[in-house]
Write a structure and sequence with these properties.
- This protein is α/β, with parallel strands linked by helices.
- 32% of the residues lie in helices and 23% in strands.
- The chain is built from twelve helices and twelve strands.
- Bound molecules: adenosine-5'-triphosphate (ATP).
């Protein structure tokens, strides 16, 4: 991946929420780059900060309740310095967003055509005729078989999968360079899920967009992503190509996630369960390896006091040194879970 295609650079970004008058970090010192023509998956358990990262990039936080530091450089503009009017020029135009629940993202009272056209009315000078043509083109691009008919329908007349296709059509209407998809297939059944992921992949290829795909589902990541950032407790703990993450995972958290993933060809139903939980924001440790309490058999001396990201070659990065000698208890045979 050449650095020339990089267009989003997230630098040292932290977002803290105000809880009972005090600020607590939900994401801490995030550094990430997104390139054109790639799908970057952000993966981790519920509560690890994936959505907070997405909404921070999109400027969707109330400044009275959140403290955001760092820089989000999008094609030369630091998004974090924009006011609401400034952000509105980017959202829907150069940055498209796809949320988990297509029903709540659509207006129940408006026909599909009107909802897709709106974004073009706001961001382009298209005539009514041009917009109509583009609506049909978009519905076709997201795999809707009868665009004319669907354009005239209301959201409640469509299935969940169709609604998610419409949401994608809205997100890509102005050919954004960046698409942020937050759990885009979680509400859908497996077959439809695969179809929607195909649509996303096709769009990324056709539009040369960069896509940030947020998911807790490693199956989705394996199907779709070019690169992967694994998040734990508000930090990135490992980053690499999909191949590096799936074939040579390093961080104990990544390895635990992979071990807890159901395998199609695995006859053994006993899935690995990661001990404990992600700490709440108020209980988040600030020193040491945040994952250490969940791998208690690893000695303190194996962890760095202040874990940093290590580039272990070919841009494969891993936080903390504890990965070096890490083994699961059943691999060493010496510790019982
Ligand atoms: N507005 C808020 N006020 C206070 N705490 C928040 C707020 N939004 C998120 N959090 C907390 O921040 C942490 C990260 O949440 P976030 O929703 O970003 O995680 P996530 O990985 O996207 O999880 P999920 O997959 O369940 O959406 C959690 O502890 C959550 O409770």
């Amino acid at each position: 991946m050449g650095s020339s295609t990089q267009f989003l650079n997230i630098k040292d970004v932290s977002t803290a929420f105000k809880i009972n008058g005090k600020y607590y970090d939900a994401i801490s010192h995030i550094n990430l780059e997104v390139h054109h023509d790639e799908i970057l998956a952000i993966v981790g358990e519920s509560g690890c900060g994936k959505s907070t990262l997405a909404t921070t990039i999109m400027g969707l936080h109330d400044p009275a309740e959140t403290k955001i530091t760092g820089e989000v450089d999008f094609e030369g503009t630091n998004l974090l310095k924009l006011d609401e009017a400034g952000y509105n020029k980017f959202r829907g135009a150069k940055i498209g967003m796809i949320f988990q629940d297509p029903l709540s993202a659509l207006n129940p009272l408006k026909r599909i055509e009107e909802q897709i056209s709106e974004v073009m009315t706001y961001h382009t000078n298209f005539t009514a005729e041009q917009k109509h043509k583009r609506v049909l083109e978009l519905l076709d691009q997201v795999g809707i078989v009868n665009p004319e008919r669907t354009a005239r329908q209301f959201p409640h007349e469509l299935s969940g999968g169709m609604r998610q296709r419409v949401i994608i059509a809205i997100a890509i209407a102005c050919k954004p360079d960046l698409i942020i998809a937050d759990e885009p297939t979680t509400a859908l059944d497996v077959t439809i899920q695969a179809q929607i992921l195909d649509v996303l992949r096709d769009i990324q290829k056709e539009n040369h967009a960069g896509i940030i795909l947020i998911t807790h589902d490693l199956g989705v990541v394996a199907e779709t992503a070019d690169r992967v950032a694994v998040m734990y407790a508000g930090q990135i703990v490992e980053e690499g190509t999909a191949e590096q993450i799936f074939n040579t995972p390093k961080h104990p958290y990544t390895r635990s996630l992979l071990r807890s993933m159901p395998q199609r060809d695995n006859e053994n139903d006993d899935l690995y369960v990661i001990q404990g939980n992600i700490p709440s924001l108020q209980r988040m440790p600030h020193d040491g390896d945040r994952f250490a309490p969940r791998i208690p058999w690893v000695k303190d001396s194996e962890h760095e006091a202040e874990p940093t990201m290590h580039d272990i070659g070919d841009n494969h990065k891993v936080r903390c040194t504890c990965y070096k000698n890490f083994e699961f208890p059943d691999e060493t045979g010496s510790v019982k879970l």
